[in-house]
Amino acid sequence: MKAHKQISFFFIVFLCLSSISVIGQSSVSKVDLSIYPKPEKGYKQMVIEVPHSNNDDAKKIEFTVGKWMEVDTCNKHGLQGSLEQKDLKGWGYSYYVFKSNGNSISTQMACLDSNKVDRFITAPPQITRYNGRSPIVIYVPEGFDVQFKIYKAEADIYQASEVIRK
């Protein structure tokens, strides 16, 4: 019985410490985000933070702004909007602002079925450099979200062939 209580105690301590660790990771930012402008009415501030590595220069980040929409299953859909990069004056950082009225575009194929699904419909992606020392800050309208991918270049370098014409 005593061993059972000890195991239970250690398990509870482990869960508490794990929770504190997760909370600490999610609330610690590399840069004080208060230096960025507050979101305009109807907008929210999104942040992408990635870990620093010794090969940050060999990586890129692709992010997309989008929103979940109910769409048909046979057409390709895209979100209308524009993404503007702005300078954070006096700090040497930049941030992005996505403007959209929420309208989407799609191909106009006639669907054989009337099935609808929820999909993350996005505007064209933005590719930017990977920087593990500072965040990427993006302002998007309420109801929109940001998703991102990390691309890493291989160490191999290839040579293109020259075409010789006679």
Which tags fit this structure?
flat
Average pLDDT for all residues: 85
Tally of DSSP helical segments: 1
Total number of strands: 10
* Coarse morphology: flat
DSSP strand content: 35-45%
Percent helix, as a range, is 10-25%
Q: Multimeric state of these chains?
A: single chain
Low-confidence stretches: 13-27
The strand order across the widest sheet is 1-9-5-4
How many strands, which pairing sense, and closed or not: the largest β-sheet? 4 strands, mixed
| Spatial separation of the terminal alpha carbons | 90 Å
Look at the helices and sheets and give the structural class: alpha+beta
What sequence of helices (H) and strands (E) makes up the elements? HEEEEEEEEEE
Alpha carbon gyration radius: 23 Å
Protein described:
With 166 residues, this protein is α+β, with helices and mostly antiparallel strands. It has one helix at residues 2-27; strands spanning 43-48, 59-72, 77-79, 82-88, 93-99, 104-106, 116-122, 126-129, 136-141, 145-152. The strands form 3 sheets. The chain has a 4-stranded mixed beta sheet, with no helix packed on it. Strands 2, 7, 8 and 10 form a 4-stranded antiparallel beta sheet that branches. The protein is flat and about 50 Å long. The model is unreliable at 13-27 (pLDDT under 50).
Q: Could you write a compact summary of the structure shown?
A:
With 166 residues, the protein is α+β, with helices and mostly antiparallel strands. It is 16% helix and 39% strand. Strand 4 and strand 5 form a beta hairpin.
